[in-house]
Amino acid sequence: MSNSIMDSVFEIGDNLYREMCAAKPSNHAKLFSNITELGRKMTNSDRASFWKWDKVRHQLWTTSATGVDRITIPDDTGLVGKAIREKRIIVTNDPYNDPDFNSSVDKKTGYVTKSILVMPVADINGEFIGAFQIINKLDGDGYDEVVDSRKLSMAALICGIALESETFLEKSYHDKLTKLKNRMGFYSDFSRRFSKTLDEGRNLCLFISDIDKFKKVNDTYGHNAGDDVLAFVANLIEQNCTEKDAVYRWGGEEFIMMMEDTDLNECIEKAEMIRKKIMDSTINADGNDINVTMSFGCRSFDAEKSIEANISVADGYLYTAKESGRNCVISELNN
Description:
The protein has helices spanning 3-21, 28-42, 78-86, 104-109, 145-172, 183-199, 214-221, 223-239, 264-279, 307-323; strands at residues 45-54, 59-62, 71-74, 90-92, 116-122, 128-137, 204-211, 245-251, 254-260, 283-285, 288-290, 294-300, 329-330. By secondary structure, it is α+β, with helices and mostly antiparallel strands. The longest helix has 28 residues, at 145-172.
């Protein structure tokens, strides 16, 4: 291995270590980007990308492709999909004559692909979860499956371990029933996203909401029906989120929505719109047609107070909404 390649390996390793030890919020994106670059240099390739397999949405996607932004493709297409599907390394040094090669990106960008190697990546249980792809060998006549996959294996292994870790972390941040982020996910987002919003002096509002008389739903129709109601409500609230909003299952039948660059009146309007949509919806829950209502407590976030203190104020307004007959929105403006 040449000194220049070893220097690159050491430089990337040093960058990753410093990033890991930095006293600031981070995520796996930087690691994937650096390890993708490591794989590219180790194999002397022009481009490289690490692909993640979303088995729920049946998609393959990457944000760590050198030279491009995020790409999403169906998981049953392309050479990446083939490598995962067939659980083996795929090599082609004549891609335009390979029926599994997707040339749409080349046609769009003018890039010419001459050679490709795709190595599927598995978790500790041997379940395939992604793939490492390198494109255009810069020396020789193309990729050698034995030689180049050996060079790529360390980078692919690290990406696989990191992806498994990221997947486990993401699962711990999400509620299995509603697919919304949970309380842990909320606190993670606050430290990475919403604290920055407040530091920049931008508006931040929240509401906490609760399904009225939800216990009666469980007692009358059973917990399966109750679960269907929770999933329906969660989906409806999420559908009314913009890119400035985020919704979380706070616990039980309670949900919180955070709204950036939103004042209290706009927060109230959003809550009122969702309240009406819930009230007007008939939910098919475990074979039963069920109607429910929701109560809301709205709060403009006070940067001088803790997260818990702000939520407590909104929760107080929610309690007032419950005491006022339910199915309403309460804030400091009408409390």
